[in-house]
Please model this.
Amino acid sequence: MAADRALCQVLTAQQMRDAEQRIFDAGMPEFDLMQLAAGRVAEWVRRLAAGRSVTVLCGPGNNGGDGYVIAHCLREFGLKVTVIAPQPPKRTSARKALELWNGEVLTSGGSVQGEVFVDCLFGSGLTRKLSGEHSLLLRDLAQRHQFVIALDVPSGVASDSGKILNEHLPQSDVTLAVGAWKFAHCLLPAREKMGTRRIVPIGVNAVEAAAEQVVRPQIKPPSSTDHKYTRGLAAIVGGDMAGASLLASEAAMRAGAGYVKFLAQHVSAKPPELVVEAGDVADLLADKRINAVLIGPGLARHEGSLRAVEAALKCTGGLVLDADALHLIGPDMLDRDKPMLATPHDGELDALCRNFAVVAEGRMARAKALCARSGMVICAKGPDTIIASPDGRVAIAPPALSWLSTAGTGDVLAGIAVSRMAVGSDPFMAACEAVWLHGEAARICGPAFTPRELAHAIPSALSRCL
Model:
């Protein structure tokens, strides 16, 4: 389990340095670790190069040192290798790596052309723009080669934020993450510069409090003695626009809960298998058998909606807040001891930050600040979905299909989440499970699906977790 966690964790540059230091403290010299890491990267490059010539661009730090070792290994494999280094190495291990290479080093790209280009100029420690000279050299070399490989993170990318530090950075075909994933591998806009991403293990152990990637959950099927109430009762509160909450109900029925109820003043049409209870929402939510409630999809924003949200907040079960409910809540309404999950898209995240007086830049920073302020788990939806918990846990979802950018798919996600909470998952785990199932259902659907088709694909996604 520890090894699996180590391979899906996402580290800051400082966490990565600390993890490497623990390897050094255990007795491995820095240059030995460099040879281990670069040797494994070189094996990847050898396979990708498939006999083609390779140009390696080395920087002055240990990323450049890795480059010299990679070049040495590729030469040992019998490949034609050209090394370019605009500056000499500054670190002891990098200088040893240059001695190991023991070959010609060009100081400029000149008219160097080749087939495979390996960017080892700067790595995860870079926090400022590349110089004009370095930026131009990097771009020109990438343009003059058929295939581009980036070591760890592409030069000119901020590892901790995923920001692009320089304009016109080249597009990599493959990025080889060394030791652990970094935030730039998971976040836009950097992620789109990386091409295919692969991790190269070097013995980094699981880091306490590290963020993780959302991975396929392990979900247990019901036991032979389970019944509808032991499997979890999820309640979905209807609103003025019943279609959205009915869609969430369809998703909830297919995501594992044993009993799904739709609570509404009135509803004209519903799936025949969905239980509908009409009446005052506050009275309906007083049912202590309810394990989790979803409120927000199709709710609208008026006094009656606010009263419904207040009733949902008093329910004994867990709570998923989505859509219009996110515009109606404020700091004085929430009980921090109540299990709560909010699932905002960027516009709703803006509204929550205003209501809770949160000032932060970027989806991740805002999600972390908002959960600390509100006590809610925040699932900040988007092309790089972030899940943050008040206890410090952070998860980043893998890229989802762009076909999910369709009205109604967020209601499906909320329905999956309330179902998983009703089953017994805590809000953070429920969000991770929901995001993975949501993305997998989209892949099963293929292109141009409807939200209802997405909801109907959830059992097939769920089957891949059993």
About this structure: The mean pLDDT is 94.
